[in-house]
Amino acid sequence: MNVHDSERLSGLLESSGYTPVVEGVVPDVIVFNTCAVRENADNKLYGNLSHLVPVKEANPGLQIAIGGCLAQKDQGEILRKAPWVDVVFGTHNMGALPILLERARFEQEAQIEIKEALEVFPSTLPTKRDSTYAAWVSISVGCNNTCTFCIVPALRGSEKDRRAGEILAEVEMLVAQGVLEVTLLGQNVNAYGVEFGERTAFADLLRACGKIEGLERVRFMSPHPKDFTDDVIEAMATTANVMPQLHMPMQSGSDRILQAMRRSYRQERYLGIIDRVRSAMPHAAITTDIIVGFPGETEQDFQETMHVVREARFAGAYTFQYSKRPGTPAAEMPDQIPKEVVQDRYVRLLALVNEITLQENSNLIGREVDVLIAEGEGRKDSTTERMSGRAEDSRLVHVAVGGEVSPPRPGDVVTARITHAAPHHLVADEIVRIRRTRAGDLSEVEKPAGVLLGIPAMPLR
Ligand code: SF4
Questions:
Q1: Is any atom of ligand 1 closer than 6 Å to the C-beta of 222?
Q2: Is residue 237 predicted with pLDDT exceeding 50?
């Protein structure tokens, strides 16, 4: 969400006449798009801002703007702590950035504007996309849940759904521009439609994406187990371009902790969804998010999480040590777990996750996979040149391209045979064929460095 917002801010600035600077040149404007979900987001922001003091002193015309969730949370506090900042804007009024910059310049005074509710769905803003072959498409913003560890509802507001016609028009436009893959984005994609009372809206949207010619890969992020219905599984399994991949945040395997987290599904339901997804799509790669050390978590609760990890056999898991987010109910709960206990559980969880993901990845050795080559993920070592990308099930694959006369470009699709597995990636030393795409042609056009400094988000749920 944060990364896609950065693309919007970038597009907004360009459409207002700003141009990207080349690397090494001091820009006229620096924008920090902050994410409050990350641990220590505020320390990182204020640390970065203090580094800019000498730059600002040497370049008095330089403007610094702070947006995103941390700006929505800290508001005027930012100007008190860093009075050299020129503009502070919130999550609900990204579109105001160019005007606020202009006003700050004209009035020679810092501007702060935070709105408490969304006025315009942000997808109407111009967007400068980072990639020629893959794109984020927002289907909703905000969240109606109240998970006790999460700051999102307080900063992004309640769920606002975008009309299906608008979403599909944006996807069609992207495909016409050469995009092969879209990721439908929302805090809780399965709840999509709640605003206009259509229970099957998300499954219908997946099916409608399946009819868009030229759209090769559809993904979504993130579903909530509470709202995951069988018609979504059916739509995933029967829509050819919906990829065999599911990222479904679990957070804890313990029913007691899920209740304390105010996540209204239980272990049995979570594992039931996984079973049904696997019977409909046997090759689906299922990944998750897990928090260890939530307040009150006992060793028995932790063992419940380990049990689900063993049963679910995840293809990957983002594992987090619980840490307080000021402003959330969990931050005030008694029984906060000592750091060393959290660390010990985290190490054991990670070892189990890595053991299972290595086993699961090893099962793919010898198999041919289609890899959409990604930008900037190329890896070189002393003997082999590799380019990287995602297989259909979203596994990261490093493809050896050293021997190719005409190597693939970002956006091309490579069919390759898996020769080696590791817990977090696969290696393919044998290319079977390369399919050149229009996105690949476009990726050869040189792009200048952006004007925007972003603090990228980590998936939380
Ligand atoms: S964790 Fe996800 S579902 Fe829960 S409140 Fe936060 S955004 Fe909503």
A1: no
A2: yes
- State the Cα–Cα distance between residues 74 and 90, nearest whole angstrom: 10
Query: Mean pLDDT of all residues in the chain?
Result: 91
Q: What is residue 330's predicted lDDT score, i.e. its pLDDT?
A: 96
CA distance 322 to 305: 14
Which comes out higher in pLDDT, residue 115 or 237? 237
Predicted TM-score of the model (pTM): 0.89
**Ligand 1 site, residue 156, Cβ cutoff 6 A:** no
Q: Domain limits at 333?
A: 122-362
pLDDT at 42: 82
Tell me which residue of 341, 226, 330, 336 sits closest to 272, measured CA to CA.
226
- CATH assignment of the domain containing 230: 3.80.30.20
Maximum Cα–Cα distance for the chain, whole Å? 65
Instruction: Point out the ligand 1 atom lying closest to the alpha carbon of residue 146.
Output: 5
Looking at the structure, tell me whether residues 358 and 384 fall in a common domain: no
Whether residue 178 has its Cβ less than 6 Å from ligand 1: no
Based on the fold, state whether residues 334 and 419 are members of the same structural domain.
no
**Domain count of the fold of the chain:** 3
Ligand 1 contact via 325 beta carbon (within 6 Å): no
- Residue 150 Cβ inside 6 Å of ligand 1? The answer reads yes
Q: Which atom of ligand 1 is nearest to the CA of 262?
A: 4
Q: Helix, strand, or coil here: 352?
A: helix
The per-residue pLDDT for range 50-72, each reduced to its tens digit, is 999 999 999 999 999 999 999 99
Ligand 1 site, residue 251, Cβ cutoff 6 A: no
Ligand 1 pocket mutation pick from 35, 150, 155, 460 by most atoms within 8 angstroms of CB = 150
* Among 167, 199, 196, CA closest to 183: 167
- What confidence tens digit (pLDDT) does each residue in 384-407 have? 688 999 999 999 999 998 777 788
The answer on 87 and 127 residing in a single domain is no
Cα-only R_g, the chain = 23
For residue 377, report the distance from its CA to the centre of ligand 1, in Å.
30
